[in-house]
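Q: Sequence in, structure out?
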Amino acid sequence: MQQNTIEWLENRKNHIGSSDAPIIMGVSPYKRSDGLHRTPHVLWKEKLGILLDEKPNEAMNYGKQMEEPARQAYEAYVNAKVPQAIIYHPTVLYLMASVDGLSKDKKYLVEIKNTNEKNHELAKEGKIPKEFFPQMQHQLECANKKYDIQCMHYWSFYNGSGALVEVPLEQKYIDSMLQEEEKFWDCVQNFKSPPLCDLDYISMEAGHEEATRLMEIKDLQSSLKREREKIEKKLQALCDGKNAIFGNVRYGFCMAKGNVKYSEIPELQNVNLDFYRGSPIKRWTPNFLK
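A: Exactly. Output:
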C-alpha cells in the first residue's frame, strides 16, 4: 500500500498511526486547514468520519513538493536507498506506522522532516522537537515488535541542508504512550468522546452576558434541587408511608414499574445493542473556567 493514496488514508481511520501519537499525547502544535487545533477530540471525530478530511494547505503542499529533495539528500548522506514502509504492530492490532524509510537490513527506521530554521538548529545540536518525539517512539514500538529495531534516524532538511539525529527507543515513554493510545482507541470503538481540552474551545467576543446568566441559572437549579430533596425528605418522614394533605397541598405516592436491567438479561449478553440505538445526541455543557 502506497502512502498518501485514498486506500492509505482510509486505512489510517481504522488504526492509530504514528502521526496520531503527538496528538494523543497532547504535544501537537498544529492546526487543521479549517483552523481546528489537532487535539484528541478532533482526531476522534476524524477517525469516526464526523469531520471531513481536510483540504491541503500551503504548508502541506510545500512539504509534499520537498519530500523528494529531502529524501535524495538523506540517501546521498548515508549512501543507501531506504524505501518507505507501512508497519503493523504484530500484537496491538489497531497500531500502525507509516515510515519514511526502513533500511534493507531491517536495522533502523528513517523519519524525514522538512523543518523550519528553529527546528533545524535543534537537529544540528543533536536534538529533536518535542512534537516529533511521540511519532518516532510510536514508529519504533511497531518496528521493534516486528523487526527488533532499537533506533531510528531523524533527518532534518532545511534550505538545502540536512542534519541527522539518531533517536533511540525509550521504553518507559512508550509504555505511558501505549496506555494513552489504548484509552483513545476505546473512545473510538465505543463512540465515547475524549475529554475536551482548552484548545478545543474558541474565544468569542459576543455572548458573555448570556453565558454568565446561563451559569447562574444552572447553579440556581442545582440549589433548588438540593432544597427540594431536603423538603421532600422531611415531608415523607411526616407522612410515615401514608398519603397526606398539608394545607392546600396534596402529597402522596404511587407505585411504578422499575427499570429493566438489560445488562442482566442472559439472552442479550452477546447481542450488539448499538444496532438498535437512535441517532447520536448532541449535548451542550456550560462550565465556569477555573
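The first strand starts at residue 85 and ends at 88.
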